Amino acid sequence: MSVVVSASPAPPLIERARRSDLTSICWLLDMEGLPSADITTDALEFFLVYRDEIGVAGAVGLEQ
């Protein structure tokens, strides 16, 4: 008899946005009809992203 142990998926992660997240953040904003043209790599300093096993699943930012 063998026992199969499945690893549970990694928990979602909330962390500071990276430069590589810019495209995903803009895509999320565009999908919700929100402006994204003014989001620059410098603005990412004020963003947090929610990551799941696939990638960026959400974002929050503070407009300066």
Structure overview:
The protein has 64 residues and is α+β, with helices and mostly antiparallel strands. It has a domain at 13-55. Helix content is 16%, strand content 23%. The chain contains one helix and three strands. It has one helix at 22-31, and strands spanning 13-16, 47-51, 56-61. The chain has a three-stranded antiparallel β-sheet. A hairpin with a 4-residue loop joins strand 2 (47-51) and strand 3 (56-61). 9% of the residues are buried.
Alpha carbon gap, first and last residue: 61 Å
Shape: elongated
Helix content percent band: 10-25%
Which sequence of strands runs across the widest sheet?
A: 1-2-3
Largest sheet: 3 strands, antiparallel
Instruction: List the total number of helices.
Output: 1
Give the helix/strand class.
Answer: alpha+beta
Q: What are the segments in which pLDDT stays under 50 over at least 5 consecutive residues?
A: none
- Integer average pLDDT: 89
Strand content: 15-25%
- Helix-strand sequence: EHEE
Number of strands: 3
Query: What is the CA-based Rg, rounded?
Result: 16 Å
Protein traits:
single chain, about 60 residues, 3-stranded antiparallel beta sheet
Secondary-structure map:
Blueprint: E1 13-16, H1 22-31, E2 47-51, E3 56-61
